């Protein structure tokens, strides 16, 4: 008797999704609860196709039409007695595939040419199977296990059980059978590209996740067609809002990766760094409380905020009792080193400076971070904290010590009080060259600071240091420092002598302006008295020289400028910094305009 093809030709939209629609609409109500079973009549799925599940002929036609392996069919029709009776090892690897010979190709012809994926799908060649999966997904979008609520074509026995509201004992029986006779299927993706563990996590079925892990399923097995870059069950668990499934994996593997009750922050076998980056402080502390051996790692890796818990504790002045990595990705930003420098316990910061990471001569980024942190420390901490650090300078690493000296010699990077304290404590250890640099740097601070450093100066002053001090003192308007350097400057002495001998009549306006910026009327008047051609300087740089001269001595401005032709630019007095200087200069410019 021939089979009537009209009885087995699939409908345009077969109601295959009906088997799982109720579960999609009614997901598990508890995160630890398996999918609930519905009270249905045995054979409902076959009935939806117009067949009587209990009728042998209809049963045969139904299986032909759907392409279901026998045990798959029993599961979909919720005939659990029959499923348990016929279940055997050979069922484990069977996939639900449409009957190839009955598929209709796009050109309307029957045969295998229209849908070649049906042949390649069971292939052991991964490339062929991958192409078949893509073709299947394109053709059956919404009705395959690629869709959110689907579990259809391509499901093997284990993945089918995990996706349907199957009795827990039946699913665990299938898991046990696979573990004993076909363990590869515990981790093998089905034709939809997802592994059993991946599906169990999607279904929020913690009991089956544990059962699969205990049976030997691999959570790191690569999944294909996974969405959002989540290509393994482990990554899927990691990206869940809660730590429920991730904790299950940690429970399974923690003893393997902490043989000495210590977790390697550097090697990070459990990918905790990735997990931290996805979660907030509260979630991380919860996981750390549950797995104390992982606390060091969890607190050191950057979390969702971009900082880490060590940083957040230190910035509040707390010191967590854990191993601390001072830098995050060799960067100072949001790192524990930065927090310790800003406001954490001083001893914690000093302890960081002793760590090998910050004294690695090959790690330029770490050295730069160390230098930046020292600057932050000196600018933000009390004098007592600074002195405490300096007193411990002999204990910190060589790179940190070198940076301390560089910080002292590099200019006005430090607050004045810290500069003086650091200079006093390090002075006996400094070379003459560094002492000269520090002495020059004192010109960038107050005259009192310069006077203190002058009393400490116990070595020869280099000629180059004198020249540098002239520039620095003028820039920072330190009159005492500038005049000290000017009195010892060979260049200024020779220039003044040449003017007096009549060899030079025109001095560069920059020199006069430098004197005035430093506030040294003594030297300015010395150059005028020597016979310098001041009119030329007024013509060239009057807009800068005159306002500064007026600010320094508004009362004596008339005596110094009488007889000179001043510019007629009325904007020049506005450059004065004092009202007295502005009024005096305006008056002198009015007088000059009338006379000339």
Topology (SSEs and partners):
Blueprint: H1 5-8, H2 18-25, H3 44-47, H4 56-66, H5 70-76, H6 80-86, H7 117-120, H8 126-139, H9 157-163, H10 168-181, H11 196-202, H12 206-215, H13 233-238, H14 244-257, H15 272-277, H16 281-290, H17 295-300, H18 309-315, H19 336-342, H20 346-353, H21 364-380, H22 383-391, H23 398-409, H24 416-426, H25 432-441, H26 447-456, H27 463-475, H28 479-487, H29 490-500, H30 509-518, H31 521-530, H32 534-552, H33 557-561, H34 579-595
Helix pairs in contact: 5-6, 9-10, 10-12, 11-12, 12-14, 18-19, 19-21, 21-23, 22-24, 24-26, 25-27, 27-28, 27-30, 30-32, 32-34
Structural class call reads: mainly alpha
Residue share in helix: 40-55%
Number of helices: 34
Q: Roughly how many Å apart are the termini?
A: 131 Å
- How many E strands? 0
Beta strand %: under 5%
Largest sheet: none
* Stretches with pLDDT under 50, minimum 5 residues: 1-38, 100-114, 141-151
- Which geometry do the CA atoms define? elongated
Q: Mean pLDDT, nearest integer?
A: 80
Q: What does the radius of gyration come to? A: 42 Å
Structure description:
The chain is mainly α. The chain has a domain at 549-596. It is built from 34 helices and no strands. It has helices at residues 5-8, 18-25, 44-47, 56-66, 70-76, 80-86, 117-120, 126-139, 157-163, 168-181, 196-202, 206-215, 233-238, 244-257, 272-277, 281-290, 295-300, 309-315, 336-342, 346-353, 364-380, 383-391, 398-409, 416-426, 432-441, 447-456, 463-475, 479-487, 490-500, 509-518, 521-530, 534-552, 557-561, 579-595. Residues 1-38, 100-114 and 141-151 have low confidence and may be disordered.
């Amino acid at each position: 008797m021939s089979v009537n093809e009209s009885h087995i030709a699939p409908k345009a939209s077969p109601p295959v999704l009906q088997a799982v629609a109720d579960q999609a609409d009614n997901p598990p109500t508890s995160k630890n609860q398996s999918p609930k079973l519905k009270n249905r009549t045995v054979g409902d799925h076959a009935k939806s196709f117009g067949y009587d599940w209990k009728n042998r002929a209809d049963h045969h036609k139904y299986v032909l039409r759907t392409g279901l392996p026998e045990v798959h069919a029993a599961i979909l029709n919720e005939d659990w007695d029959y499923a348990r009776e016929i279940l055997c090892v050979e069922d484990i690897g069977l996939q639900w595939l449409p009957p190839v010979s009955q598929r209709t190709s796009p050109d309307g012809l029957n045969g295998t040419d229209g849908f070649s994926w049906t042949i390649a799908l069971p292939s052991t060649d991964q490339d062929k199977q991958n192409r078949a999966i893509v073709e299947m997904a394109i053709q059956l979008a919404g009705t395959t296990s690629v869709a959110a609520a689907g579990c259809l074509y391509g499901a093997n026995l284990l993945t089918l059980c995990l996706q349907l509201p199957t009795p827990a004992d039946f699913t665990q029986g299938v898991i046990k059978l696979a573990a004993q006779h076909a363990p590869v299927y515990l981790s093998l993706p089905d034709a939809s590209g997802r592994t059993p563990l991946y599906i169990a996590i999607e279904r929020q079925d913690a009991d089956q996740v544990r059962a699969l892990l205990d049976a030997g399923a691999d959570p790191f097995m690569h999944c294909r067609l996974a969405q959002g870059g989540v290509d393994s069950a482990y990554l899927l668990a990691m990206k869940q809002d809660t730590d429920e499934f991730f904790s299950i994996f940690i429970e399974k593997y923690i003893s393997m990766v902490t043989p000495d009750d210590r977790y390697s922050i550097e090697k990070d076998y459990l990918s905790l760094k990735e997990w931290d980056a996805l979660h907030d402080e509260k979630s991380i502390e919860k996981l750390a409380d549950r797995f104390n051996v992982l606390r060091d790692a969890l607190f050191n890796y950057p979390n969702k905020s971009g900082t880490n818990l060590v940083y957040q504790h230190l910035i509040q002045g707390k010191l967590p009792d854990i191993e601390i990595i001072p830098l995050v990705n060799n960067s100072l930003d949001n790192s524990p080193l930065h927090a310790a420098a800003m406001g954490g316990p001083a001893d914690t910061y000093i302890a960081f400076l002793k760590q090998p990471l910050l004294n690695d001569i090959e790690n330029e980024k770490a050295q730069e971070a160390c230098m930046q942190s020292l600057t932050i420390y000196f600018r933000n901490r009390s004098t007592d904290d600074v002195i405490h650090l300096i007193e411990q300078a002999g204990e910190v690493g060589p790179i940190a010590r070198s940076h301390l000296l560089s910080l002292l010699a590099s200019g006005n990077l430090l607050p004045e009080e810290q500069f003086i304290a650091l200079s006093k404590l390090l002075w006996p250890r400094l070379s003459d060259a560094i002492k000269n640099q520090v002495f020059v740097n004192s010109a960038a601070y107050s005259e009192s600071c310069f006077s203190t450093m002058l009393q400490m100066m116990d070595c020869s002053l280099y000629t180059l240091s004198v020249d540098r001090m002239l520039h620095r003192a003028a820039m920072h308007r330190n009159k005492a420092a500038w005049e000290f350097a000017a009195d010892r400057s060979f260049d200024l002495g020779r220039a003044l002598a040449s003017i007096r001998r009549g060899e030079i009549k025109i001095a560069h306006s920059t020199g006069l302006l430098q004197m005035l910026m430093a506030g040294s009327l003594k030297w300015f008047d010395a150059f005028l008295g020597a016979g310098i051609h001041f009119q030329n300087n007024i013509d060239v740089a009057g807009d800068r020289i005159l306002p500064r001269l007026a600010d320094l001595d508004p009362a004596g401005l008339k005596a110094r400028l009488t007889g000179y032709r001043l510019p007629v630019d009325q904007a020049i007095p506005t450059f004065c910094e004092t009202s007295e200087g502005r009024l005096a200069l305006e008056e002198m410019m009015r007088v000059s305009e009338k006379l000339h």
